[in-house]
Amino acid sequence: MPARLTEFLARRRRLLALLVHAGPGPLAGLLAAHLVTALAAAATSVATGWLLTGALASSAVGEILLPLGLVAVLVLAGQCVEIAREPLDLLAARRIDGALRSAVRDRVARPSGIAHLEDLDHATDVARVSELGGWRTRTPGTGAVGQLLLLGRLTSAVLCAVVLAWFAPLLAVWLLAVTLVMRAGIRRHWVRLSRTWDEHAGARRRAEYWADTLTESPAGKEVRLFGLGPWLTERYREQARGWLTEIWRDRRGILRRQWWTFLLALAAGFAALYVPGAALAAGTVDFGGLITMVLAAWGVFAAGAMGHEAFDIEYALGALRALDRLDRHVAVRAGGDRPAPDSPVRLRFERVGFHYPGGDRPVLDGLDLDIGPAEVLAVVGRNGAGKTTMIKLLTGLHEPTGGRITLDGTDLADVDLTSWRRRVTAVFQDFVHYPLTVRENVALGAPEAGADDGPILAAVAAAGATGLVDRLPDGLDTLLTREHSGGVDLSGGQWQRIAIARALFAVANGRQVLILDEPTAHLDVRAEAEFYDRVISAVSGVTVVLISHRLSTVRRADRIVVLDNGRVSESGNHGELMDHGGEYAGLYRLQAGRFAEDTEGAA
Ligand SMILES: Nc1ncnc2c1ncn2[C@@H]1O[C@H](COP(=O)(O)OP(=O)(O)OP(=O)(O)O)[C@@H](O)[C@H]1O
């Protein structure tokens, strides 16, 4: 068998195999319903012909009871199947879609790093497999059901051709050939349309972003204040027009190019009526035979009509290809089975280089940095210097593109990341506001540790959030979201205290490296002033990496490094760096000077 045909059949089989996700009961029902539909046309042609022959030969009802009953059963079965098939199709399609969405979630969640989450092609493939609802009536599930429908139609056509061949073999072959050629021709157009649809998956996702920005709450303030409504609507239309124009061009193309199928259909239809008519005139068939021939011919012909299942199938095949790409994208990181040390470790960046995929310049370039056990290291540098990126590498969310990071001399690439992440905790700049209770928000820092009052309240107190929690209606059990009744939302600074409590809870449960990226950005002046004593000095025996643009927050660190051009440009404690008179000293004086000016101005 030619390789292309083998591949074609393998892909179709894979699509049909998705039907098992419908579950045994619905799958049995579905197969039975499609089988009845597939048999119905051929059986009806034979039974109707038999009935007519019998009715013309004798007026006694008893003589035609059997064919009459058969026709009645076929009509009734057809009606029942029609009623049952639609809900069964829908149920199967939705269950398949659910299973594929789970598969997508699994593939997205499995990698230990986040490179795939920052890759647009990956996001588009995720949308290809899991987009559902709204104006998108095509899903992998409808494609799998469509494939079954198509199989049923083809079976029906072949069975009708067999019935027809009994009377007129040449006509049967001719009609079957014409029907298949018509199908293949029309399918080509549908494939093209489906490719266009698939190519624009990214544009659809972008259009949706603008629609969501317009209608959902996070951007609501700015949309109204800046008067962005019409602009967003136009932006959405512009994105949507981009792909809809091409889709409609293809649709019109399908109609334009179908003239030859009309001609073929006309020729086939003429033959389907002429040959039985001629046979009746020649006396080779009776009236019942004529009806059987015409109905069987029509049954062959009906399979040529191209329903939307062709498009559904192509769409679903595209989704399966996207799923395979997700598998490749989401290759689980190799190696890494050495457990992370469970005592405070020496962390070293050794000539570490890193550039983001598609980035035009390295963010880190030969970074050498040694962080001692239980050292408090502050990292400063201008916007975009690579501070957060350095943290992503240290936590194994990205891998260095050059050099290596070691934990007590062991390459991080060889360390089991799950065990390493039991040793590290972080408050990221863009930490997550989980729509959960305060207790749960804090407990998520060490999910294995439970959420008893004592340790949670201790972490809350260490983060300076006791007063805040006391004022909440349900204390620790207050839901931190407005999406549910009884829930409250917090201010930026209040959320930051909860995030710090989460990290301190993690430290209390064995994390030995505490990373704080801009932990005081939202805190008020008093809280910022207390921050070092309250949080940093209070965690003992823990390595702290503290990133901040507020130099008053970092000045008491054991050591401060300035990151510039992807490597460390200055290193020392506050006093040493001030004496050195480099960038740090300049920035510090600038901040302190502005503060002094403001104070003098106010006085
Ligand atoms: N996911 C990403 N993909 C591509 N480039 C990125 C990505 N994240 C960051 N960058 C780029 O990497 C550089 C360093 O970013 P990073 O967030 O590490 O800087 P930073 O020092 O933490 O900055 P800031 O002080 O503003 O927080 C920036 O030029 C940024 O544009």
Automatic annotation (TrEMBL):
Annotated Pfam families: ABC_tran (PF00005)
Membrane-spanning parts: 64-84, 259-281
Keyword Lipid biosynthesis: no
Domain ABC transporter: 347-590
Subcellular localization: Cell membrane
Keywords: ATP-binding, Cell membrane, Membrane, Nucleotide-binding, Transmembrane, Transmembrane helix, Transport
GO molecular function: ATP binding; ATP hydrolysis activity; ATPase-coupled lipid transmembrane transporter activity
Cellular component, GO annotation: plasma membrane
Keyword Glycosyltransferase: no
SUPFAM superfamilies from the UniProt entry: ABC transporter transmembrane region, P-loop containing nucleoside triphosphate hydrolases
Membrane protein topology class: Multi-pass membrane protein
PROSITE patterns according to UniProt: ABC_TRANSPORTER_1, ABC_TRANSPORTER_2
InterPro entries noted in UniProt: AAA+_ATPase, ABC1_TM_sf, ABC_transporter-like_ATP-bd, ABC_transporter-like_CS, P-loop_NTPase, Type_1_exporter
Protein family according to the UniProt entry: Belongs to the ABC transporter superfamily. Lipid exporter (TC 3.A.1.106) family.
Protein name in the entry: ABC transporter domain-containing protein
Organism listed in the record: Actinophytocola xinjiangensis
